[in-house]
């Protein structure tokens, strides 16, 4: 993610900036850029509350209103393009590490990612998207809720990378392979849209 502008989205996940978002940065290392953006001390004012990916939000809205285009391939191409751009890297593990450095990465955030990789592996979630939409919010963690106190999270993530994809090879850390596996399931593209909206879309 070197050279990318990083921002904290409405539910507390970190990603790359969206069009129209003005975030100043420089050529320092990525971790220093995060510190520059002061995600640990962000103020929930009007400006910080409006950081979201407009394109992802629009696609989600059309899905939610039941007016999604019949041209599924066009929609899938659009959402995959936004996913790759907003994650900001083809190394999913880099993005996960970024979240773990954030003091907004609560138990709910961790559990949502685990449930998401469960869907990518099996085509099923343990908890509904609607429940996650309510549960996942931007909130500061503390010494009890920080990911460092959840060693099981790292194991789940590493096991996921080794899990066999539809081609029989490990899913790996490559975002392109992860998305391909995601889309292999029935209504996988719907889960992908819903997930991206929780990660990077508008809160309401």
Structure description:
With about 200 residues, the chain is an all-alpha fold. The protein has one domain (about 5-200). The chain has 10 helices and 2 strands. The chain has helices at about 30-35, 45-50, 55-65, 70-85, 90-100, 105-120, 130-135, 150-160, 175-185, 190-200, and strands at about 5-10, 15. It has a two-stranded antiparallel sheet. A hairpin with a 5-residue loop joins strand 1 (about 5-10) and strand 2 (about 15). Helix 6 (about 105-120) packs parallel to helix 8 (about 150-160). The two termini are about 30 Å apart.
Structural class: mainly alpha
Helical amount: 40-55%
Principal-axes geometry comes out as globular
**Roughly how many Å apart are the termini?**
28 Å
Strand-and-helix sequence, N→C? EEHHHHHHHHHH
Point out poorly predicted stretches. 20-49
How do the strands line up in the largest sheet?
A: 1-2
Brief account:
The chain is an all-alpha fold and 204 residues long. The protein has one domain (6-200).
Main attributes of the structure:
204 residues; mainly alpha; two-stranded antiparallel ribbon; 2 strands; 51% helix; globular
List the helices and strands and how they pair.
Blueprint: E1 6-8, E2 14-16, H1 30-36, H2 46-49, H3 54-64, H4 72-87, H5 92-100, H6 107-122, H7 129-135, H8 151-162, H9 175-183, H10 188-200
Antiparallel strand pairs: 1-2
Helix pairs in contact: 3-10, 4-10, 6-8
